[in-house]
Amino acid sequence: xxxxxxxxxxxxxxxxxxxxxxxxxxxxxxxxxxxxxxxxxxxxxxxxxxxxxxxxxxxxxxxxxxxxxxxxxxxxxxxxxxxxxxxxxxxxxxxxxxxxxxxxxxxxxxxxx
Length: 113
Hints:
With 113 residues, the chain is mainly β. Helices cover 0% and strands 57% of the residues. The chain has strands spanning 2-6, 9-12, 17-24, 32-38, 45-51, 56-58, 66-70, 76-81, 90-98, 100-103, 107-112. The strands form two sheets. Strands 2, 4, 5, 6, 9, 10 and 11 form a seven-stranded mixed beta sheet that branches. A four-stranded antiparallel beta sheet has the order 1-3-8-7, with no helix packed on it.
C-alpha cells in the first residue's frame, strides 16, 4: 500500500482546512485509515480513525472540531478540520492499517494566532 496526502497549509486561528490521503496498491478490507500528527519537539499523537466498516473515532483534543470520512471506494480518507487553533499546528500523517501500519509522507498544517 502507498499513501499520498495533500491539503496542508497556513490558516488563521478559527479557520478550516481539509486534508486528503489516497491509498493505492493492494487494499483489502477490513482496514483502518486515519491521521496522526506531530508538533515540533513533541511525540506523534493520534488524531482520528475511520474503519472500512464506517465507524469513526477521535482524540479528545479534536472531537467536535474535526471530521474524518472516506470515499465510497474506501481508498481515500479525508480530515475536515474546523475551528483550528494554534495548538493544531503539526505535521499530519495519514496511515493505513491492515496487519501492519503504512504511513504517508506527512503534510504540514500551520495555524497562526
